[in-house]
Design a protein that fits this description.
Elements: H1 13-22, H2 31-45, H3 52-60, E1 67-71, E2 80-84, H4 99-114, E3 118-122, H5 132-140, E4 143-147, H6 153-164, E5 169-174, H7 181-184, E6 189-192, H8 198-217, H9 225-237
Parallel strand pairs: 2-3, 2-4, 4-5, 5-6
Antiparallel strand pairs: 1-3
Length: 239
């Protein structure tokens, strides 16, 4: 469980229950007991927050990596999808604790793997600082998956860097997230259901898989966002 959630912080039970049953085969009658025992053990071991791997590295006197591999296909692949998304739920946004961790674990990662990618993301460890190594990963990855949910400023900044590089992106957001005029009008943004029920996950994962594959397969066919903007700007400048 520590490895699945990249740390000791578990999401709310309505999200955790789905993972415990689908990923670990744990009967629902044991979910509450498991959650209690897991939290008590983490507290006893001194793993109270943050990334468990980072805690172990700190004790060993080494630093944690700036990016982490979330999952990869059983069949070896050389292409990587780098995920940029909010990592902390803001109170004003109304998202329950653990929402984005569950989106990453239950939706984005399995869809990315099914689409044939190694799935990586930033190891922020609670920091909003965008490190140079993360920027390099952002620019070098074969595909960037950007979750625009709640219009997180870091995600928007990172998306802007990727767009400027004219490299393929796959855009997603939770249903109910407002439109971003410059993005939604010119690029496809696939919505997923924020309930994260098993029934909605079973529908959304295949749709996300197709979305990720399409973004990659059409990378050399579609005009980049920057090409479209520059053409529009050049046309506007003509007398």
């Amino acid at each position: 469980m520590l490895r699945h959630y990249k740390g000791s912080n578990l999401p709310e039970m309505k999200y955790l229950a789905n993972t415990l049953e689908t990923e670990f085969g744990l009967d629902p009658s044991f979910h509450e007991e498991f959650s209690r025992v897991f939290r008590e053990n983490c507290k006893y071991l001194g793993i109270t927050s943050g990334d468990a791997i980072a805690v172990a590295d700190a004790e060993a006197g080494t630093s944690a990596p700036t990016t982490v591999l979330i999952g990869e296909p059983a069949k070896k692949t050389s292409i990587t999808a780098f995920v940029v998304m909010p990592f902390v739920e803001k109170e004003a946004g109304g998202r329950p604790k653990g929402f984005f961790s569950e989106v990453l674990a239950s939706l984005v990662t399995p869809a990315g793997i099914e689409a044939g990618f190694k799935v990586e993301t930033a190891n922020r460890q609670g920091s909003d600082v965008i490190q140079s190594t993360i920027v390099n990963e952002l620019l070098d990855a074969d595909l960037v998956i950007a979750d625009l949910t709640d219009h997180n400023p870091n995600v928007m900044f990172e998306l802007g860097l990727r767009i400027a590089a004219k490299k393929p992106v796959a855009l997603i957001k939770a249903a109910g997230t407002g439109r971003v005029f410059d993005v939604d009008n010119m690029m496809r943004v696939l919505e997923y259901q924020p309930t994260l029920w098993r029934s909605t996950v079973e529908v959304d994962v295949p749709e996300l898989t197709k979305h990720f594959k399409a973004a990659w397969d059409n990378r050399s066919k579609d005009k980049s966002y920057m090409d479209i903007l520059r053409r529009a700007g050049a046309a506007a400048d003509r007398p």
